[in-house]
Amino acid sequence: MTGRLIAVVGPSGVGKDSVMTALAERRPSIELVRRVITRAPGLGGEDYTPVTEDRFAELLAADAFCLHWAAHGLLYGIPATVRDQLAGGTDLLVNLSRSVLPEMKRAFANSAILSLTATPETLARRLQGRGRETPDSIAKRLERSALGIPEGVPVIEISNDGSLDETVAAALNALYPVKV
């Protein structure tokens, strides 16, 4: 049986990485996809593979990514090796940009999209708390938070304004409903 690619999307500061980590801890059969990013190493948050823009271009030319995009002045890539993991039956969680969702749905038939939401106040507080962005960068990320999901792309929407446990429980119930 083919695994399912589960995209986790939402605005910066919504808690995608925290929710993904908690989901994988609560359901060990789910694995996290490690993104390749043109971000300096060791900036906290997610576990990613840092690369230079030149190296990213080399990887892109070598078809090393199944999905890629640019956002916030950075380049992001999803390793093509996820196809092998999915073929082996593993469900994978991946932090994706909302802009690449139509491409993901075309490339991966067995997929789902978990869209996390939070109030603007929650987003601003979390962005300031992670200490990675300047006030100007935070303002730009908050502006971008109003962007929606591309039309025609089905999503499972979960609010992450409450506790992490509540969010994870709601997400697991939506992704893996109990059949009676």
Automatic annotation (TrEMBL):
Upper lineage ranks?
Bacteria, Pseudomonadati, Pseudomonadota, Alphaproteobacteria, Rhodobacterales
Quote the catalytic activity from the record. Answer: alpha-D-ribose 1,5-bisphosphate + ATP = 5-phospho-alpha-D-ribose 1-diphosphate + ADP
The free-text function statement in the UniProt record for this protein reads:
Catalyzes the phosphorylation of ribose 1,5-bisphosphate to 5-phospho-D-ribosyl alpha-1-diphosphate (PRPP).
Fetch the NCBIfam families from UniProt: phosphon_PhnN
> Which residues participate in ATP binding?
10-17
Does the record bear Ligase in its keywords? no
- The record's gene field reads phnN
Q: What is the recorded name of this protein? A: Ribose 1,5-bisphosphate phosphokinase PhnN
Which InterPro entries did the record assign? Answer: GK/Ca_channel_bsu, Guanylate_kin-like_dom, P-loop_NTPase, PhnN
Q: Name one Pfam family in it.
A: Guanylate_kin
This protein's pathway reads:
Metabolic intermediate biosynthesis; 5-phospho-alpha-D-ribose 1-diphosphate biosynthesis; 5-phospho-alpha-D-ribose 1-diphosphate from D-ribose 5-phosphate (route II): step 3/3
* Guanylate kinase-like domain span: 3-176
